[in-house]
Amino acid sequence: MANAQPQHQRQKQQHLFGSISRSVNTHVHLNHVYLFLLFVIGFSLGVVITLFLKNFLFTMAIAPFASTNTTSVSLEAQRFIKYNTSDDELFRKATSMVQSKNTTVAKVAFMFLTKGPLPLAPLWEKFFAGHEGFYSIYVHSHPFYNETVPESSVFHGRRIPSQTVYWGTTTMIDAEKRLLANALLDISNQRFVLLSESCIPLFNFTTIYKYLINSNLSFLGSFDDPRSPGRGRYNPKMSPSINITDWRKGSQWFEVHRDLALHIVSDTKYYRIFKTHCLPPCYSDEHYIPTLVNILYPELNSNRSITWVDWSRGGPHPAKFGGNQITDEFLDQIRYRSKCLYNGNTVTSVCNLFARKFLPNALGPLLRICPLLLGFNP
């Protein structure tokens, strides 16, 4: 009996401790639930506040620069849009621009799709000199390329946010759309020409400007090529949206007016088909825009390019031209070598406004010849 009392007390103590332990565990469990709920609520509020602030900052950035007659975006607001939006958001913003009836001076957007530097920039500097207000410049280069452009250069501050481009893939189309979208943000831009770092102008600025601004059609090569490099690249899986009879080929280096630029940037249907079914040896940059325009907007196109390229030597890439090939006779042959239609009914010998591919060592001879031959300012 002497040991019964302590044993009984121990049982009571164990029962008491068990109750306390269960209570503590329950309390700890509830604390975990409360903390989890507080985390979810806090995270949700953070997301809402972030989205609100982003929208607020975007609105504040645009509001001071917007015109009452148009949704044109100023350079300051353009920079905010470019560096703070995805491609899809940029494309939507670009295609929402409303044409202003008060646009006084129409500009030509010169869009340079490059790997890195612009070795022929001094030639283009002479081309643009004295024509401020009649052109815009946009440069898409490799995202990791670092360059220092003097503030006095027309190319200063003209690089747009870019992504890596891989030859023969839809990343080339992405870059072209990125250039078009950035240029569309300026409501004054009415014509859009795609160029590379190896391109040169074949006439002076005034001649090219008038030729483009006064044209009622775009200049985009789009033709039916029955050979393996043409129809042979068609994928039957593109049907029924794209049939073999719709399939077209053309030069990547296009020039389009604003209406067609808007159509190209806004397209998602045909882009998705090309991204899925046009894989090497199908090259989107040679087929996507020519096919898109042929299907939807053939009446807006002249079906010819204004950028001369020499494919006579065969192979996957055109001929290149160095300094020892630059002469007056050579350039004049390119400038006046053929006949074509302008605005659908006027026969002209001025069919090419630009040419490629010119090597960096061609710069010296070009600077010696072009001021006199093309009428640049010396």
From TrEMBL:
It is found in: Membrane. It is a single-pass type II membrane protein. GO terms for cellular component: membrane. The keyword Membrane applies. Pfam families: Branch. GO terms for molecular function: glycosyltransferase activity. The chain crosses the membrane at residues 33-53. Keywords: Glycoprotein, Glycosyltransferase, Membrane, Transferase, Transmembrane, Transmembrane helix. It comes from the Eukaryota. InterPro entries: BC10-like, Glyco_trans_14. This is Glycosyl transferase, family 14. It comes from Citrus x changshan-huyou. The lineage of its organism: Eukaryota, Viridiplantae, Streptophyta, Embryophyta, Tracheophyta.
